[in-house]
Amino acid sequence: MWPLYAAGFTTAFGAHGIAANLGGFSADAVTSLLVLGGLLALYDGAEVVLKPVFGSLADRIGGKPVLLGGLIAFAAASALYAVADSPGWLWAARLGQGAAASAFSPSASALVARLNPAAKRGRAFGSYGFYKSIGYTLGPLLGGVLVWAGGLRLLFTVMAVCAAAVALWAVLAVPAVPPLPRKRQTVADLARRLADHSFLAPTAALAAATAALSVGVGFLPVSGAAAGLGTVATGAAVSVLAATAAVVQPKAGRALDAGRLSTRTGLLAGLLITAAGLTAAMLPGLAGVLLAAALIGTGTGLVTPLGFAALAASTPEERMGQTMGSAELGRELGDAGGPLLVAGVATATTLTYGYAALAVLLAAGALPALADRRRTARAPN
Predict the structure, then answer these.
(1) Which residues are CB-contacts of 337 (< 8 A; sequence separation ≥ 6)?
(2) Is residue 308 a contact partner of residue 235, using CB atoms and an 8 Å limit?
(3) What is the signed CA dihedral for 215, 294, 273, 281, rounded to 10 degrees?
(4) How confident is the model over 296-330, as pLDDT tens digits?
(5) What residues have CB less than 8 Å from 381, skipping those under 6 apart?
(6) 64-106: pLDDT as tens digits
(7) CA distances from 216 to 45, 195, 219, 222, 335 (A)
(8) 332: Cβ–Cβ under 8 A, 6 or more apart, which residues?
(9) Nearest 5 degrees, angle CA 170-CA 174-CA 179?
């Protein structure tokens, strides 16, 4: 499991280490909030297209080869900008990193599910999310230090070395999990399975939480800069978001396995807490940034392990990669759409209204489920 945790750390550190530092350290490449939103969305846009493809490939040939190929490609894409160092190559490198993460992220999730029994998957995904959140935590802070010391090229160099080292570790330590025999599946069969509530509900929650997470990492530094915070202080404040998520995820996974928390309750609470965090981001000054980071981290920390555990519980073993890839597609739609929504609204109005727009969407998605829950509780036996 440890190389899988390291793979999760790598993609989180790479994605958010860059995202949190683009606005403050790359004035030559990021000339507006709309350009910043585009760069944040580019990484995830590649994942939107490719994750289902690589998830299905993991089911066909096994998760380990896809995991290794993605890590190697991530190292190569990171090295590209480290060598070229120009605004145009920054876009190309981010696109390459997103394509590479499309391979090793769903295969890692599928391997987490395949290597753990159903009764322990909440804990397993909680632990996987914990180490991924450590990457989110260190990304903005350590990324800011690296960029301050040697520019974006140094950050990309460190990411290339990290991905290559994890690939070597995975070669030596991750067991080969052979693909399982699969029944023939038509397009209609796939559509029915992906349209089922057991897939749509957790995937929609994951997408909403990921949208808020991406917005928090990408735009809270902008709010911090507007409040007069320095770069290191801004990175530390944003790292509160990921640190909170890191603490919450294992606890949520253990509570699920122990029966103390249901999937429905946890997902609903997570969405409402995340919406409250986006609302807090509208407050001016350091207090608003810190409160928003803590609440968004708590909400996403609840949603992430519970969502993936629910998906794994409702998926045939032989289709685990396909389901995880499709669910990651939903997440990446949120990851790409969240920054674009906030950037678009902020360009027309202000960043405060951008936060408000996303908060309303999250609350609107959670409130019908809350109303249904209350009606069910009042219904006579």
Answers:
(1) 41, 211
(2) no
(3) -50
(4) 999 988 988 888 888 887 776 767 777 777 777 77
(5) none
(6) 888 999 999 999 988 888 887 777 777 888 888 888 888 888 8
(7) 18, 29, 6, 10, 11
(8) 44, 45, 47, 48, 51, 210
(9) 120
